[in-house]
């Protein structure tokens, strides 16, 4: 990937300031540079309350503090519309152990607005093309939902393509919406490793990822066939609950 970064730098240097391709090449270079960044090494795992009711309440109140006002709701009204965590199937044990409440884009709350509120930087041209992976059989709800995830460590250092091929029948690739939920649950996850989202796509050859650039989180996209030991693909369970 360093080679790809060097090639993009050279190509960018050959373009005039007004060249029509300059903006797209700059965005790709930003993605390549972020993909080559080093995460801070930490030993602590992702924060999850052992009591699922306390964990649900913790996440619900955090999301309400962020998204209730933009949706013209009180915090109490927002929390009331959130679904409980789905029952955890036996086959999830030891694989999909992280319960997450996800606030996806919905009427009155665009993806860019969610990212702005969450303090996540992004390439606006890229996020406009993010969609569910066409072969996943999963459609991201337009309302808050709950799901079970892993933290990306299972496929750490593997490509998005490998992660997609390795999914069990009860699993789906985590989407960028799942990933934002995972980050909001515990932002420290990016200090351990960065996150790829095999359940989403940008065109046919790229997928979104979440990375730290310094202390700043960025949602970007990169090629699905590029392995990196600092990145892991998030996996989700197919059992979800959708809110009101």
Account of the protein in words:
This protein has 244 residues and is of the alpha+beta class. The chain has 2 domains: 36 residues, no CATH class; 199 residues, no CATH class. The strands form 4 sheets. A 5-stranded mixed sheet has the order 2-9-8-6-10, with helices on both faces. The termini are far apart. About 2% of the residues have low confidence.
Order of helices and strands: HHHHEHEHEEHEHHEEEEEEE
Tell me the strand percentage band: 15-25%
Mean pLDDT: 88
Helix content: 25-40%
Distance between the termini: 44 Å
Helix run count: 9
Give the strand order of the largest sheet, numbering strands 1, 2, ... along the chain. 2-9-8-6-10
Rg from Cα: 18 Å
Secondary-structure class: alpha+beta
Give the uncertain stretches in residue-range form: 40-44
Short description:
This protein has 9 helices and 12 strands. It has 244 residues and is an alpha+beta fold.
What order do the helices and strands come in, and which of them pair?
Layout: H1 2-14, H2 22-35, H3 52-67, H4 75-81, E1 98-102, H5 111-118, E2 121-122, H6 124-127, E3 130-132, E4 145-149, H7 160-165, E5 171-173, H8 176-185, H9 189-192, E6 194-196, E7 200-202, E8 206-213, E9 216-223, E10 231-233, E11 235-237, E12 241-242
Helix pairs in contact: 1-2, 3-4
